[in-house]
Specification:
The complex is a heterodimer. By secondary structure, chain A is of the alpha+beta class. Chain A is built from 16 helices and 25 strands. Among the domains of chain A are: about 5-45, no CATH class; about 105-220, Dipeptide-binding Protein, Domain 1 (Dipeptide-binding Protein, domain 1); about 320-565, Dipeptide-binding Protein, Domain 3 (Dipeptide-binding Protein, domain 3, Roll), CATH 3.10.105.10. A seven-stranded mixed sheet of chain A has the order 7-8-9-1-10-23-11, covered by helices on one side. In chain A, helix 8 packs parallel to helix 9 (about 295-305), helix 10 runs antiparallel to helix 12 and helix 15 packs antiparallel against helix 16 (about 540-555). Chain A is globular and about 80 Å long. Chain B has helices spanning about 5-10, 15-25, 25-45, 80-115, 120-130, 135-155, 155-170, 175-185, 190-200, 205-240, 250-260, 265-295. Classes of the chains: A alpha+beta, B mainly alpha.
Amino acid sequence: MTERELRGLIEAVRKGSITRRQFVGTMLGVGIAAPIAGQLLMHAGIAQAQPASTYKGTKRGGGGALKVLWWQGATLLNPHFATGTKDQDGSRIFYEPLAGWDTEGNLIPVLAAETPTPANGGVSRDGKSITWKLKRDVQWHDGKPFTSADVVFNWEYAADPATSAVTIGSYKDVVATAVDAYTVRVDYKKASPFWADPFVGTRGMLIPKHLFEAYKGAKSRDAPNNLKPVGTGPYKFDSFTPGDMVRGTLNANYHMPNRPFFDTIEMKGGGDAVSAARAVLQTGEFDYAWNLQVEDEILAKLEQGGKGRVVIIPGGDIEFIQFNFTDPWNEVDGERASIKSKHPLFTDPAVREAMNLLIDRDSVQKFIYGRTGIATANFVNNPPKYRSPNNKFEFNVDKANQVLETAGWKKGSDGIREKGGKKLKVVYQTSVNQPRQKAQAIVKQAAQKAGIDIELKTVTASVFFSSDFANPDVYTKLFCDMQMYTTTMTQPDPEIFMNQYVSWEISSKANKWQGRNVTRWTSDEYDKAYRDAEGELDPVKRTALFIKMNDLVIQNRVIVPLVSRPRVRASNLKLKVPESGWDSDFWALQDWYRDA
Amino acid sequence: MVAPVRRAATVSLTQDIWRRFKRHRLALFGAVILLVIIAGVAIGPWLWTVPINEIDFNARLKPPSWQHPFGTDDLGQDLFSRMLYGGRISIAVGLAAMTIAIVVGTIIGAIAGMSRGLVDTFLMWLTDLFLSLPQLPLLLLIIYLFRDSLKKIVGAETGVFIMIVVVIGGFRWMPVARLVRAQFLSLREKEFVEAARALGASRLRQVARHILPNALGPVIVAGTIDVAAAIIAESTLSFLGLGFPPDIPTWGRVLFDAKDYLDTSPYWALFPGTLIFLTVLSINYIGDGLRDALDPRRVL
């Protein structure tokens, strides 16, 4: 479905010629989930109901103790100093942002009264300022009211370089002003289609002005409340042992009715991923465990314990194969894989097309990743509204042979195809990692049947992913023909994620191989679409642009996506957890609930 | 005491060594096992023609059967043919690396042991230096520096083979050198060497004819231990992504791949483990037997 068709339909709903329900039905037909269709309407200024909460509790408290296991425990509880998700999650028990991200990438208000939209005047026409309306009945745990002064203080605190907050990147380029006691305006330097970064999600948790005001700047690390949080969250601080245990008790004045369900929360740290999975799935000692980087076969075995289930939370991370568009084996101007060179084999689209047909994604999912890696044909997989409906994947050795044959690559006496004296021999590298080596073997074998000889190469992860530009084996150099790794998408907006293919991000000697465009593929069409998306304030147009970029990359076979890699957690069978792949695990802690 | 005096007078030195070696039951047994393994990996791939990398998801993790005598791994690849193919590489790496370690170690140890003063001191400094070098970073460096250029000259697999053998051998000669030097220091003062010197034997002849044969015992034992260490070291390098490509099933590699499946498919780890164990043990026993057989002072 093109942008124009989409827009036509939305217009039809606005005029009343089709109903909301008909619109959602049509969207479902083209593979766009109902909430997303609803969001498209919302962005277009057509009102919708708030997504219904799944919370079923009827009164505050009475749920007993909630015991969760983070095999890396929180080490401090100030969200502005949180390094890594463990600290963000520990802080999120007590502190809250203005809004959080649900699993579909929708912005859900927490301390804000409503999500800013162009319709409610929250988003200015030029896209340069956002106005947040705050909830009026919120109290800090010590009884002081929560007001716009607190929000503005968090901006001052984090943006001050002397504070050395890790969240500084989200705050240093904006200006926050209190309009009145319950309204805050955030001004951006340029039009920002993706404005929901400061005060939102893991980087947006708010600390109280009255307790931290004296510790802004150089004294920031001396604040006693860095280890004794006083927030607005569903649980009040009880005790904290860094790296080991965070305890909280129910907040009787919490700003959402009938919440939270549990009387106490215990967040235990330590151990490893497998023992954490065992404690929830097999023995049932804990209710929830975080980040289970364990092979699916082992998880499935533990699940037979019958106490818990594995929770798979979709996200944007993707395991994919990149083709090199420059020549990695010869130097041009003293630089390997120089942008001035052309790859001897992969510049032929037929070779890339054949490789795309030779990668058995179904088997990679079924026999290697299981539930922890879902075979995909797209680069952008989540949030679902950005997922292109236009791509399919296929594994077909005969077709690959045919494609190569037609393009003039003939089999030699050794079974390897060649054309114009160039043999189809490539080097395929990845990091040392059991599942990756298995995927390499699967690809190599299929390629062999099509007359492509693949030499496998592995690089130890600490080298492969390092930023040591003196080493020829770091992944950003791509000094081989093709490589495979997982690229992570940290925000529900694909803007930063998609700069991996723009021409000004090409990884080269000039930028010490820090550029994000590793394949060194360039396309004016892609560059233009990206530039347009950067300044495009209309979410529907912007979505269409990102889908177009995804399709350009996929259909030109710049890369081959293998599996999308969701977050993996374990939860007690009776525990109900609103999960999100775009925010802290505790983003909706107030809604955690246990069935009787 | 068993050997009659009249025969002892007629046998040559080699025959005598063989006679002494045969007495060592375990050494003989080890030699037979090693020969069987070597013959197996040398001839086996011609007789058992199942490809080593045929992926068959319908035959994943199958226990040993007539179709797959050693079972299959998690991609359904036949472990028997993989063992046979990988054995060639593992044994070749082990023996070649051992040879390098022994040759280099013996030469350096012998020179140090025979010369006094500066040369000896310098060579022992060198040995100490090598012993105290952090091996892993150095390995990384060597491999990054030379991998691609070597690959260009001799091709991917041979290049990696040469590099691994040189690297492993090049880091294991130091104990041999010290052993040899110690032996030389004591032997060169012995009466029979003095006698040879008095008869006008050149230094080279003293070393080759009189000292070295008497110093060989410990060297051979050290060498046999090196074979085992080299097989294991090769798998360590593979684990770091520095050894052979991951699809080449050396024994160490297969063992490493199998470790996560020990509880469900123990045979996968048992076969390579047993083969490494048998190879190493038989080489050790052979070394033991050879030392006894080569020691002229020992009466058998």
